[in-house]
C-alpha cells in the first residue's frame, strides 16, 4: 500500500508533507492576519500591537490546556475573549489620537506591544512554553503513506471553517456590509451616521478575537515565546502587503502563499530560503505594478497619485 | 521671539552640543565613551530616517535594512580586504545605496502608512535573512574579531575607545554637514515641495517619484555609512543590532526630535538610546515595559515632536502678542482639515513661520 502510493506520487512524494504543513501554516496566518487587514482597511489603523493579541491567545493556551477537550474549549473561549478585550482596550487608548497622523498611532501601538510583551514575559517567564494538545489528537495519522500529526489535520479543517464563516460574515451580514462600506469610503459611512469610534472599537475587538483564537488554536504551530508577537506581526504584514485590502479571498490566497513559501519553499530551495519572502513580495508588487499602492490609496478621498 | 533670534538660538545650541561631544571622551570612562560612539552611529541612522520621514514624507521603519547591509559589507571588507576607514565607509555607503536601490520599487509608489508597513516588512525580512545566511553573516552568532580600523592609509590602527569615538564623530559630522548643504540647494526645496503638495509639484512638471527614489537611495547610503561606523565602534555585528525594536526606537527618536529636522533627529535619537541604556542599567528587566510607556506618553504629549512643540509654543506666543491666531495653532490638521497621507510631523509650522 505504502509502496503503491509512493509509486503513484513519484517525484512529488517527498514534498507532500511540507506542502500540507504549508497549508496548515497558511491557514493559521490567514486567521491571524485577517484581523490586521480589518484594522487597516476599515479603521485605517496600522496596529503594531497585533502580534501581542496573538501572543495573549498562545500564552493562555499554554497555561490552560491540560490534554482534555474541555480545556481546549475553555482556552479557546478565554483566549478569544481576553484578546478581544485587549483589542477593545487598544481602541480606547487610540481614541484621543484618532485624528492625528499614522506615525502617532504607530508609536502608540508599538509602545503597547512593547509593554504588553514585557508583561507577558513577566507573567509567564522568558522561556518558550510547551503546549499540551488534547490526548485524542496527540498522535499521528497516515496520509498517502506518510505519518502526519493529527492535530494539524484537524487544525486545517477548523481554520478552513473559520475562513468560510468570516467570508460569510463579511459578505452576507449587516456588520460585514458596514465593514465593506468603510473600506470603500470611511467618510461617507461617518456621514451616514455611523460613529467612527464605534467602528474602531468593533473592528479592534473583532481583530483581537480573531488573533486570540488563532493564538489558542495555533499555539502548537507558532508557540508562545517572547518573540511570538514579532513573528506573527511580521508574517501578517507580509500577508497584508501581498493580499491587499480588497477581499477575504485575497488575504486567504496571500496567507496560503506565505505558508507554502515558509515550508515547501524551504524544502525545495534551502539555500535561497532566507530570501524567498523578499522575492515573493517583490514579484507580486512588480506584477501588479502600481496596483497595490493604488488600491491602498483609493481608500482616501483625494489621495490620487 | 523672532525667527532670526530662534535660528541664532538653535545655532548656538548646536555649537554647544558639538563642543560637549568633542570634550566628552576626556570626561567619562572608556566604556561610556564606547556607548556614546554607538549612540552617535544610531543618531546617523536616525538622520536618514528623518530625511525620509520628515523631508520626503515617506515614514519608514525599514532603515535598519541598508544599515545592516552597510554593516555586514564593511565587516567583510574589514576582515578580508582592507582595514582602511575610507574604504570601509565607501563600501558601507555603496552597500546601503545598493540595498535601497533594490527595494526602491517596493516603496516609492506608496505613501503614508503603507510605506510604514512595507518598510517594516523589509526591515524585518533583512534581520531574518541576516540570521539565516550563516555563510556570510555568521548567523545569529554574528561576526566577531573584526580588526581595528586605520582611518586613512599609513595611519596607525585606532586602539582606544576615545580614538574610535572621535573617528565616528568626525565621519558623522562630515556626513551631516554634506546633507545639510545638499538640502539647502534647490534640490532640497523640490523635495519639500513634493512632500507638501505632491499634485501641484507634479503639475509643475516635476518627477516627484524620481526625486523620492533618489532621496531613498541617498538615505540608504547614509544608513550604510552608519553601518560601517557600527563596525568601527563595536568591532562586532549580529542580527540583534538591526531588530524591530531598533527601528521603532529610531522612529521614536526622530519624532521626538521633530521629524523634519536633521539636528533634531540626532539629538532625539541620542536621547532615546541614552534613556534605554540608562533604564536597562537602573531597572534590569523592566526596560521594555518603561520604554513602551514612554512611547505611549510621547504619542499623547508630543504628537509633533519636541521641536514641533517648541515651534507651536513660539507661534502661540507670537500670535498672542499680535492679537490673532496663526495657522500653526491647529496641530495635526492638513489642508482639508484631516491628516493627509504621509503628512510629516512638525513640518508645517516651521515653513509657515519662515514665510511670514
From TrEMBL, chain B:
A Pfam family annotated for this UniProt entry: BPD_transp_2
UniProt keyword list: Cell membrane, Membrane, Transmembrane, Transmembrane helix
Biased composition (Gly residues): 325-335
Annotated region (Disordered), positions in chain: 320-356
Segments traversing the membrane: 40-61, 73-102, 108-130, 165-187, 208-231, 251-275, 282-302
Annotated localization: Cell membrane
Chief localization: membrane
InterPro entries (alphabetical): ABC_transp_permease, LivM-like
Entry superkingdom: Bacteria
Membrane topology: Multi-pass membrane protein
Statement: the UniProt record of this protein carries the keyword Transmembrane: yes
Name of the protein in question: Branched-chain amino acid ABC transporter permease
Species of origin: Plantactinospora mayteni
Amino acid at each position: 500500500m505504502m509502496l503503491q502510493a509512493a509509486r503513484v506520487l513519484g517525484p512529488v512524494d517527498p514534498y507532500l508533507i511540507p506542502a500540507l504543513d504549508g497549508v496548515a501554516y497558511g491557514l493559521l496566518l490567514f486567521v491571524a492576519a485577517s484581523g490586521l487587514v480589518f484594522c487597516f482597511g476599515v479603521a485605517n489603523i496600522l496596529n503594531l500591537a497585533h502580534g501581542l493579541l496573538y501572543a495573549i491567545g498562545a500564552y493562555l493556551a499554554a497555561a490552560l490546556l491540560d490534554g482534555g477537550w474541555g480545556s481546549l474549549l475553555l482556552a479557546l473561549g478565554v483566549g478569544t475573549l481576553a484578546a478581544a478585550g485587549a483589542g477593545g482596550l487598544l481602541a480606547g487608548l487610540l481614541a484621543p489620537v484618532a485624528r492625528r497622523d499614522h506615525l502617532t498611532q504607530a508609536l502608540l501601538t508599538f509602545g503597547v506591544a512593547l509593554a504588553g510583551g514585557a508583561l507577558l514575559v513577566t507573567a509567564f517567564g522568558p522561556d518558550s512554553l510547551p503546549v499540551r494538545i488534547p490526548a485524542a489528537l496527540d498522535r499521528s495519522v497516515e496520509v498517502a503513506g506518510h505519518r502526519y500529526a493529527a492535530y494539524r489535520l484537524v487544525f486545517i479543517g477548523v481554520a478552513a471553517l473559520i475562513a468560510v464563516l468570516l467570508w460569510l460574515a463579511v459578505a452576507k451580514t449587516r456588520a460585514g456590509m458596514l465593514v465593506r462600506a468603510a473600506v470603500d469610503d470611511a467618510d461617507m459611512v461617518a456621514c451616514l451616521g455611523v460613529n467612527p469610534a464605534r467602528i474602531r472599537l468593533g473592528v479592534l475587538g473583532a481583530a483581537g478575537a480573531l488573533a486570540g483564537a488563532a493564538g489558542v488554536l495555533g499555539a502548537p504551530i507558532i508557540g508562545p515565546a517572547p518573540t511570538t508577537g514579532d513573528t506573527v506581526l511580521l508574517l501578517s504584514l507580509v500577508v497584508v502587503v501581498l493580499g491587499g485590502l480588497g477581499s477575504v479571498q485575497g488575504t486567504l490566497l496571500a496567507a496560503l502563499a506565505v505558508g507554502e513559501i515558509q515550508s515547501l519553499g524551504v524544502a525545495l530551495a534551502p539555500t535561497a530560503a532566507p530570501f524567498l519572502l523578499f522575492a515573493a513580495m517583490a514579484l507580486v508588487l512588480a506584477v501588479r505594478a502600481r496596483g497595490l499602492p493604488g488600491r491602498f490609496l483609493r481608500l482616501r478621498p483625494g489621495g490620487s497619485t | 521671539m523672532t525667527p532670526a533670534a530662534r535660528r541664532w538660538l538653535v545655532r548656538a545650541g548646536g555649537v554647544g552640543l558639538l563642543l560637549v561631544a568633542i570634550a566628552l571622551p576626556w570626561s567619562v570612562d572608556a566604556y561610556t565613551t564606547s556607548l556614546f560612539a554607538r549612540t552617535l552611529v544610531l543618531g546617523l541612522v536616525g538622520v536618514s530616517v528623518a530625511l525620509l520621514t520628515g523631508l520626503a514624507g515617506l515614514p519608514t521603519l525599514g532603515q535598519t535594512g541598508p544599515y545592516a547591509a552597510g554593516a555586514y559589507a564593511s565587516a567583510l571588507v574589514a576582515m578580508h580586504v582592507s582595514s582602511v576607514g575610507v574604504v570601509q565607509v565607501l563600501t558601507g555607503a555603496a552597500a546601503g545605496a545598493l540595498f535601497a536601490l533594490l527595494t526602491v520599487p517596493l516603496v516609492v509608489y506608496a505613501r503614508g502608512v503603507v510605506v510604514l508597513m512595507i518598510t517594516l516588512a523589509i526591515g524585518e525580512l533583512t534581520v531574518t535573512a541576516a540570521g539565516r545566511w550563516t555563510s556570510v553573516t555568521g548567523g545569529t552568532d554574528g561576526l566577531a574579531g573584526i580588526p581595528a580600523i586605520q582611518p586613512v592609509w599609513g595611519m596607525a590602527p585606532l586602539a582606544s575607545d576615545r580614538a574610535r569615538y572621535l573617528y565616528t564623530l568626525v565621519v558623522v559630522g562630515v556626513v551631516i554637514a554634506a546633507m545639510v548643504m545638499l538640502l539647502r540647494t534647490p534640490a532640497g526645496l523640490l523635495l519639500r515641495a513634493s512632500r507638501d503638495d505632491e499634485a501641484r509639484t507634479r503639475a509643475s512638471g516635476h518627477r516627484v517619484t524620481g526625486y523620492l527614489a533618489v532621496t531613498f537611495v541617498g538615505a540608504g547610503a547614509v544608513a550604510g555609512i552608519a553601518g560601517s561606523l557600527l563596525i568601527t565602534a563595536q568591532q562586532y555585528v549580529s542580527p540583534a543590532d538591526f531588530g524591530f525594536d531598533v527601528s521603532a526606537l529610531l522612529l521614536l527618536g526622530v519624532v521626538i526630535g521633530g521629524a523634519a529636522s536633521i539636528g533634531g533627529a540626532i539629538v532625539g535619537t541620542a536621547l532615546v538610546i541614552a534613556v534605554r541604556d540608562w533604564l536597562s542599567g537602573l531597572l534590569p528587566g523592566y526596560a521594555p515595559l518603561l520604554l513602551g510607556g514612554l512611547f505611549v506618553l510621547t504619542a499623547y504629549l508630543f504628537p509633533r515632536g519636541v521641536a514641533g512643540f517648541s515651534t507651536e509654543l513660539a507661534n502661540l506666543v507670537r500670535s498672542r502678542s499680535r492679537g490673532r491666531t496663526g495657522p500653526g495653532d491647529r496641530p495635526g490638521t492638513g489642508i482639508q482639515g484631516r491628516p493627509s497621507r504621509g503628512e510629516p510631523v512638525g513640518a508645517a509650522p516651521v515653513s509657515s513661520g519662515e514665510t511670514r
